[in-house]
Write a structure and sequence with these properties.
With 300 residues, the protein is α+β, with helices and mostly antiparallel strands. Strands 5, 6, 7, 8, 9, 12, 13, 14 and 15 form a nine-stranded mixed beta sheet that branches. A hairpin with a 6-residue loop joins strand 14 and strand 15. The longest helix is centred in the middle third of the chain and has 13 residues. The chain starts with a strand and ends with a helix.
């Protein structure tokens, strides 16, 4: 559940403003929520000492973790690469990246806490080591930071786009153009606050490059490169051009089999190592279910 508050007071620390707004959270809890990005200002990460401006859109995602200890769990992880600074994980479909409301166990973070001795603390106790995320129903590569310096450098690469991610996806419909650039801003869906949407209101620039690899009778197999990293970006952009990702439970067609999840896989990750400054590139094949579905659609 996500609520939006339109700020009506100027010049007040945001943590104090929210405490005075009759929220059912203490000031310390609000600070923790801000630290872990469950409170955003104008769709941007903020700090507890941010000074409010009239008209600020304060988004608050419900998160009650005070009574829930985040515990280490012996969850099998596909570790593609590891050294003293970074870990590259191939996340399976169906795994949540970090704990949140209603999901305190069986996340990637729970597994990381068991298998990895040291993780960066920049994103707090709920998201240790997490530099970037991929959706629960998306499989594939993501990099985790083992210390704060590595985290800061990787986050800077995300910002300046020197860390890049390429996805594979199966989408509905035939896409006849071989290369497409989708440039459409993404913000919170005003009609459904659990979703994102293409909108000009309180939105951020979003750009996805799409390369069509194969075209079938009623589907296409694509490669999508993120130039920005908005929530659900590829899924929203493909739905926007009327070619939603197969199996997408939120933005896809309602009448289709969603038992596996969405056929979207982060298969390539490129980054500059935070200590050696060496360029590194990793690849991971899609899950077998993805490969089988692709062959099924190809043979239709």
């Amino acid at each position: 559940m996500i609520d939006n508050i339109i700020c009506d007071k100027e010049g007040i620390r945001i943590d104090k403003y929210l405490v005075d707004s009759d929220l059912e959270y203490s000031r310390s809890t609000i600070k923790k929520m801000i630290e872990n990005e469950f409170i955003l200002v104008n769709n941007e990460k903020t700090k507890a000492n941010y000074i409010t401006k009239i008209g600020d859109v304060i988004s608050i995602e419900e998160m009650i973790l005070d009574d829930h200890e985040i515990v280490a769990q012996d969850i099998p992880l596909d570790i593609v690469y590891q050294d003293d600074d970074i870990v590259v994980i191939n996340k399976p479909t169906g795994m949540v990246v970090h704990p949140g409301a209603g999901a305190y166990k069986d996340t990637l973070v729970n597994g990381l806490m068991y298998h990895i001795k040291d993780l960066s603390r920049i994103n707090g106790e709920i998201r240790p080591g997490i530099v970037h995320r991929i959706d629960k129903e998306t499989s594939g590569l993501l990099v985790v930071a083992k210390n704060d310096i590595a985290h800061q450098k990787l986050a800077a690469q995300l910002s300046d786009k020197s860390l890049y991610r390429i996805y594979l996806a199966l989408v509905h419909g035939q896409i006849l153009d071989k290369n497409i650039i989708i440039d459409a801003p993404i913000g919170r869906d005003e009609k459904d606050r659990t979703k994102m949407a293409i909108t000009s209101k309180n939105s951020r620039k979003a750009l996805t490059k799409v390369k069509v690899l194969e075209v079938y009778n009623s589907h296409s197999y694509i490669e999508a490169q993120l130039e920005t990293g908005r929530t659900h970006q590829i899924r929203i952009h493909m739905n926007y051009i009327k070619h939603p990702v197969v199996g997408d439970p939120k933005y896809g067609f309602k009448k289709e089999d969603k038992s596996f999840g969405q056929y979207l896989h982060a298969y390539k990750l490129g980054l500059i190592h935070p200590t050696t400054n060496e360029y590194m590139e990793f690849e991971a094949m899609p899950p077998q279910e993805f490969i089988d579905k692709r062959m099924e659609l190809k043979d239709e």
